[in-house]
Amino acid sequence: MGKQFFHWEILMNIVFTIGKKRFLYWEIIYLYLIKLINNSKKTKTMAKKAAKKATKKPAKKAAAKKKTARKPNAAFMKPLTPSSHLAAVVGDKPLPRTEVVKKLWGYIKKHNLQDKKNRRNINADDKLKPIFAGKAQVSMFDMAKLISKHLK
C-alpha cells in the first residue's frame, strides 16, 4: 500500500505541474501501474501454489493413444461417369469426384484460365462453357456445384 501511495504522489506532482487538463491521462497511467503491481503479486502466488501441487503429486503419464488412419468418405471415392462435355476435359473413364476436381484444376492451370485480377474466378474456354452452363466466367466456389450436374 505504501508503494502505491508513493506512485500516486509522484503522478499528482507531475499532473499539477502540467495542468488539470491532463489529469485523466495520468490517472489512467496510475490505475494501469496499480493493475500491474496487483497482477504480479497474483502470478507469484499462483506460481507458488502450482509448485506445491507439483511436489505433492507426481505427474501421471497419459496413455498413448494409437492413431488410426483416417478413412476416406465412401461418397467421395465412388467412381462417377462424366458427361460427354466433362469427358472432353477429364477423360471418359469413371472417376471419383475428388479426381474429377483435381483433373479440372490441372486443365485450368495448364490453359491459364484463372482471371488475372481476381484469381477466384475462372474464365471458360470452348470446352468449359458447356460445363459452366454457358457462362463465360465462374467463381471457383460455384464450380463444384456446376460439375456435379455432369457426373452420374
Describe this structure as you would to a colleague:
The structure is a single chain. By secondary structure, the protein is mainly alpha-helical. The chain has two domains: 2-52; 74-148, MDM2 (Orthogonal Bundle), CATH 1.10.245. The relative contact order is 0.08. α1 (2-18) packs antiparallel against α2 (23-56). The chain is built from six helices and two strands.
Summarize the structure.
This protein is mainly alpha-helical and 152 residues long. It contains 6 helices and 2 strands; from the N terminus they run H-H-H-H-H-E-E-H.
Task: Using the 3D structure, state the CATH architecture of the largest domain.
Answer: Orthogonal Bundle
Please bin the fraction of helical residues. 55-70%
For the biggest β-sheet, the strand order reads: 1-2
How far apart the termini lie comes to 78 Å
Shape descriptor: elongated
SS field, number of helical segments: 6
Rg over CA atoms: 34 Å
Order of helices and strands: HHHHHEEH
What's the oligomerization state? single chain
CATH homologous group name of the largest domain? SWIB/MDM2 domain
Task: Count up the domains.
Answer: 2
The helix/strand class is mainly alpha
Based on DSSP secondary structure assignment, what is the total number of beta strands?
Answer: 2
**Average pLDDT, to the nearest integer?**
77
CATH class category of the largest domain: Mainly Alpha
Report low-confidence residues grouped into runs of 5 or more.
Answer: none
The biggest beta sheet reads: 2 strands, antiparallel
Say what the CATH topology of the largest domain is: MDM2
